[in-house]
Write a structure and sequence with these properties.
three-stranded antiparallel β-sheet; 3 strands; elongated; single chain; mainly beta
Length: 53
């Protein structure tokens, strides 16, 4: 029997903190069974930086 395995990392932008950081989420799918978890670190997404001279 052949199994399927997928891992997807994404940013949970709807949970943005006041400093602009967002949590990193992971979704693991094995044979159609989905499991989600939050990676214990936060990042600031690109495109949100303001460059001032």
């Amino acid at each position: 029997m052949k199994s399927t395995f997928k891992v997807l990392f994404f940013l949970k932008r709807d949970k943005q903190k006041s400093d602009g950081s967002v949590p990193i989420m992971c979704r693991i799918t094995i044979d159609g069974q989905i499991s989600r978890l939050e990676i214990p670190s936060k990042v600031t997404p690109f495109g949100q930086f303001k460059v001032t001279p």
